[in-house]
Amino acid sequence: MAAHQEKKLAQERKHKPSQNGTQTSQVQWGRAWEVDWFSLASILFLLLFAPLIVYYFIMSCDQYQCSLTEPLRDLLTGNKHLSDIWNKTPTLTYRAAGIYCLWVTFQVVLYMFVPDFCHKFLPGYVGGVQEGAVTPAGVVNKYEINGLQAWIITHVLWFANAYYFHFFSPTIIFDNWIPLLWCANILGYAVSTFAMIKGYFFPTNAKDCKFTGNFFYDYMMGIEFNPRIGRWFDFKLFFNGRPGIVAWTLINLSYAAKQQELYGQVTNSMILVNVLQGIYVLDFFWNEAWYLKTIDICHDHFGWYLGWGDCVWLPYLYTLQGLYLVYHPVQLGTANAVGVLMLGLIGYYIFRVTNHQKDLFRRTNGNCRIWGRKPEYIECSYMSVDGTKYYSKLMTSGFWGWARHFNYTGDLLGSLAYCLACGFAHILPYFYIIYMTILLTHRCIRDEHRCSSKYGKDWKHYTAAVPYRLIPGVF
Ligand code: NDP
């Protein structure tokens, strides 16, 4: 919720116990100040293995027709050595470096220098300058929301090129996929390292920085909360949305073009993946102002997790279904295709309506109607670092009365639909649903830990009123 919408009732100084049972110190909310051994072990594991996991998946498609077991079998039986696989891997090329630099520069230009005009003619769309949530230090950042416009311009140019100008082939992304992976990694590591240095030497807001003293944890989870260059270049908003999410639909289009080139047709499974993921991406940009109130922007600091994740993990692993379908052009029977479409749309509906209900509830401070009735809620309070006390509300109506994270449940149903579109011949396209289940379950736990420290006994009242997390009656 934006700071101006919250009732700032009292100025109470730091480190006094609050009425809701929480401590008003900096340990109260936001990411950890101290690192336990499990978090550290997980972080070291991810820093070491996440880049290898991405490489393994992409290489498996390139060299083994998307089989995840064949490379391992080859290595274990001595049929191949690591060096054989590595030597067959395409290297960084000048062409890929040029494409990638142009791509990122173009997105920076759209982000920084083209103020939003979509909100002037699209009814219901919220764009232009918007406020983020109040940070732990009590700061409210302003953002230029112009992602929808960037997405539209980029895709109009893509189609104009594909059907009219023919400056480059629409298969360009697929054709340079591994050389582009090296470029994405260079940017991912560069931006994460820069963010770390910036956090130490020239932070945008020193009060919102967190140092655990553990180099690896700080590098991974970030020091600065909202690093910026100048007034408007916000690292979190830029790197997550573009190049990450604008690229998602372009990458899928490139896969569809490759299917057309290789087989003379685009299969219905490829169309389903393009359409369902396209809806998800468009939804993200249509609701970019809402995104300012999600955990990524409100609670996560900017480190390798977001920087490298947005540059490499997201564009490479979220698009695995389309990549798989280039190698295995699955044509679904009508009943299966309709089933996948329905599952995807139901998942999207739950995801969107749940997120919308919370957004509406928070924007109107509870003065709205959810499913035709005045929403029920639990009153709660918390403190920012400077000791200011704020009041908030946790809704228990609509989908938020069914489970505490029903938006995640919708997201998971949609994710499952993308995977099912690929049939059952290989495990690789199912990576997405496995990963999303781990990500969102972990996110539930992480978020609830934070909310519990933030709201204290008020959070306990809420969890008593809504006892399940994802599936009513089960979990
Ligand atoms: P939420 O939008 O669910 O936000 C959680 C926050 O909402 C809590 O920290 C709390 O914040 C507030 N809140 C919790 N319960 C209530 C309630 N009952 N009433 C009012 N406010 C409440 O989580 P995310 O930001 O993680 O996710 C947003 C969406 O993005 C989800 O639909 C998720 O599926 C999707 N997502 C997708 C990812 C992907 O990679 N595809 C990754 C992550 C998320 P406060 O402190 O303000 O009270």
From TrEMBL:
In the UniProt record, the signal sequence range is none
| Bias-annotated ranges (Basic and acidic residues) | 1-12
Q: Which GO terms describe its molecular function?
A: 7-dehydrocholesterol reductase activity
InterPro entries referenced in this protein's UniProt entry, alphabetically: ERG24_DHCR-like, Sterol_reductase_CS
Q: How does it sit in the membrane?
A: Multi-pass membrane protein
Question: Keywords for this entry?
Answer: Cholesterol biosynthesis, Cholesterol metabolism, Endoplasmic reticulum, Lipid biosynthesis, Lipid metabolism, Membrane, NADP, Oxidoreductase, Steroid biosynthesis, Steroid metabolism, Sterol biosynthesis, Sterol metabolism, Transmembrane, Transmembrane helix
* Any one GO biological process: cholesterol biosynthetic process
Q: What is its main location?
A: endoplasmic reticulum
Pathway membership:
Steroid biosynthesis; cholesterol biosynthesis
Spell out the reaction equation it catalyses. 7-dehydrodesmosterol + NADPH + H(+) = desmosterol + NADP(+); cholesterol + NADP(+) = 7-dehydrocholesterol + NADPH + H(+)
Q: Where are the transmembrane segments?
A: 37-58, 92-114, 148-165, 177-197, 302-320, 332-351, 415-440
Q: Give the top-level enzyme category.
A: oxidoreductase
Q: What are its E.C. numbers?
A: 1.3.1.21
Domain of life (superkingdom): Eukaryota
Span list, region Disordered = 1-23
Where does this one sit in the cell? Endoplasmic reticulum membrane
Q: GO terms for CC?
A: endoplasmic reticulum membrane
Sorted alphabetically, which PROSITE patterns does this protein's record hold?
STEROL_REDUCT_1, STEROL_REDUCT_2
* Functional summary from the UniProt entry: Catalyzes the last step of the cholesterol synthesis pathway, which transforms cholesta-5,7-dien-3beta-ol (7-dehydrocholesterol,7-DHC) into cholesterol by reducing the C7-C8 double bond of its sterol core. Can also metabolize cholesta-5,7,24-trien-3beta-ol (7-dehydrodemosterol, 7-DHD) to desmosterol, which is then metabolized by the Delta(24)-sterol reductase (DHCR24) to cholesterol.
- Protein family according to the UniProt entry: Belongs to the ERG4/ERG24 family.
What's the protein name? 7-dehydrocholesterol reductase
Q: Which organism is it from?
A: Oxyruncus cristatus (sharpbill)
